[in-house]
User: What shape does this take?
Amino acid sequence: MKIDKKIIQELSDYLKEFNLTEIEITEKDTKIKVSKNNVSISNQPQVVSHSPATTNVASTPAQKVISGTEITSPIIGTAYHAPEPGAKKFVEVGKKIKKGDTIMIVEAMKTMNHVPSTADGVVKEICVQDGQPVEFGQTIIILE
Assistant: This one.
């Protein structure tokens, strides 16, 4: 099988352009998957080979210095600030919360997962908007 480097380069460009972590295409019996960390190519679903990525992200944006306790998303999904549209939000900036209080809901695969606070504190910043997709480990709230 001959690998078309143009396709891999084009997929790598899409990763950068749309800020994706991975992209995959399937044509007949060939599947090509490109991610920021590796490239996977397989002719059969159960056989996957890995090789170094054709493109690496050379620089990462400078992260702002955060002071306080970060609470991160335990799963990938969509973050919601309230139990239903129009309802009172779980937390707001300046609100005092206790460890175990629900701070947000992250919906994944049609399941609403309540995210508990991992510490006591006062909400300093809400880092995600209502309805915004979140990644595993992404900071969603900062406490003082």
